[in-house]
Structure formats: C-alpha cells, structure tokens
Amino acid sequence: MSTGFVDHSALKVNQTGIVATVLVAFVGSALYRPLLVLIPLLAVVLLLGTFAPQLALFKQLYFKVLKPRGIVTPRPVPDKPEPHNFAQGLGGVFLAVASAFLPPLAVVGLAIALLVAVLAFVNLAFGYCLGCQIYYQLGKRGLIRATRSSETTGTP
Amino acid sequence: MNAQLWALAAAGIVVLAAACLEVVRSRRARAHTLGVVAGPASDPYILYFTGDGCTVCRTHQEPALAKLGPVRIDKVDAIAERTLADRFHVYTLPTTVVMSPEGRALHVNYGYATAPKLERQLAEARGAGIPATAPA
Fold it and tell me: Residue A145: inside a domain, yes or no?
C-alpha cells in the first residue's frame, strides 16, 4: 500500500472552517436571516476545493497565512488525499442540497447543514471520517477505482 | 428561532438513529465473525484490516499495535483481499481481529481499538489457547 503525505493540519483547518461557518449561519440566521447565504457559499467553496485545490478557501488560508506565520504547525502524515477530497466533496453536495431546501423549507436545509457540521466536528475531534468510510465501501464494491499514489500531497 | 430549534431536533434525531444503527450493525457483524476460522499459529495473533485511504489506521491504530510487543500481526489490505475482508464482515477500517492459536476469531474490533484493549484480548486469547485437557 503505497501512500504519499497529507498535511493533516490543513484538513483540521478545513474542518474548523466548515464547523464555524455552519454555526455562524445557523445561530446568526436566527437574528439576521440573510446569514443563511453562508450555507450555499460554503457548498460552493467545498465543491470548488474538491476539484481545484487552489480554490479551497480554508486550505489556502492555512497554506498562505496560518502555516507561514507559524500559527498552525504542519503535521504531515503518510496518507492518501483521495478519501479526504471525496469526503469534502460529499460535504459540498450535502450543503448544496441543504441550500436548495433553505428557501422553501428552512428547517430541512438547516438540519442537513447541521449534520455536515456535526460530521466535520467528529472528524476534527475524534479523527473519524464518515466520507472516508463511504469511500472505502465504494472502493470495496469497485464503484471507485482505488488509486495508488506516491506523490506528496496536501500542499497547494 | 423556531426553524433553528426544529432543525436542531431533527439533526439530533438523525445522529441518535445513526448511532443506534451503528451499534446494531457492529453487534451483528461481530456475531457473524466470532468463531470464523483462519490459519492456525503457535500463538494468538492479530488480523489487522486496513486500506490505502484509512487515516485512523496510520494515526491511531498502527501506533497502538506497535505498543503491543512481540505479537504476530497480519496486515491485510481490505480492498485487495476482499474475500478475506468479507469473511470477517469488515465494514469499517480499521478492523482488528484477535485470533486464537487454533485460528479461530475470538475478538473483533470494528473501528480503532486501543493498545490496552488489544492487550486484554490477547491475554484472554492466550488463556483460551491452553488445552482444556492438561496432560496427566
């Protein structure tokens, strides 16, 4: 099983960004409803970051600001980036679905967004990545081609 | 504020339901796996199911396995060795199976298993490995 390296600090910053954004949208929208726009914006950020890492807002914040200034210490771990990208994309898809529900049925949209935040928090705090487990299940069933990379990843 | 409270309740119910399903799933998988037979060995050993994309395997499970001391650990790529993984109902990674010297699955851990937990299971497996009828 050959793997590259993934900077887990970048992942943690990404997860923190997701949790914080959803929480601000969730709590803030109770007082100022237009804050709900943060949810579709977060969906766009996650989906863009999945396909173009240079557009991943929170990871860029880490690589361009937090890491160079020594605010967050890098933590490269032998790992593969694909499951994490898959999990991020899945989060983006769920937030896009949540965004679609927000105008007609805000409760459903908010509940879905909250679940994405809960899963991001579980990953942040306990290292359990549901998206990665789904990736494994899909790989096991041959629905996702298990790639074997050896490149160094986690950098922009 | 009402929408937020209802959403919080709905998300809470989903999380609780998912946790209950996970408990049921792991119990069923464990019940099916206990007693499954693999190759015999001179001592208890561990089947360690992992995969390329398993982060917890590298960050948590492998350091825990390294703390165990001299014990045979058979590392299995759950995707490449799908038949073996299916035999042990591996639905999540990492999965560790403590095997008796006779090659029977004694303990199955779906998800990260700590070093003390594995030590305890290995000690039990060593006890189970002692022949029931001691020579006179």
Answer: no
Structure tokens at B127: 């006890």
pTM: 0.79
Q: Around Cβ A36, how many Cβ atoms within 10 Å? A: 22
ipTM value, please give it: 0.76
Residue spans of beta strands (DSSP E) within chain A: 4-7, 76-79
Tell me the per-residue pLDDT of B60-104, one tens digit each, with 9 for 90 and over.
Answer: 899 999 999 889 999 999 988 989 999 999 988 999 999 998 889
Q: Helices A8-31 & A81-101, crossing angle to 10 degrees?
A: 10
Domains of chain B, each with CATH number or no CATH? 32-128 (3.40.30.10)
The domain in which residue A62 lies consists of 4-140
Q: Is residue A32 assigned to a domain?
A: yes
- Torsion, CA B100, CA B104, CA B108, CA B114, rounded to 10: 10
CA of A19 vs chain B CAs: smallest distance (Å): 14
Angle between helical axes of A38-51 and A81-101 (0-180°, round to 10): 150
Measured distance between the N- and C-terminal CA atoms of chain B, rounded to whole angstroms? 77
Q: Do the chains contact at B79 and A140, CB–CB below 8 Å?
A: yes
Residues in chain A within 8 Å Cβ distance of B79: 136, 139-140, 146
pLDDT in tens, A78-87: 888 888 999 9
Residue type, B68: L
From A85, A61, A62, select the one nearest A73 (Cα to Cα): A62
Counting Cβ atoms within 10 Å, is residue B46 exposed (0-12), middle (13-18) or buried (19+)? Answer: buried
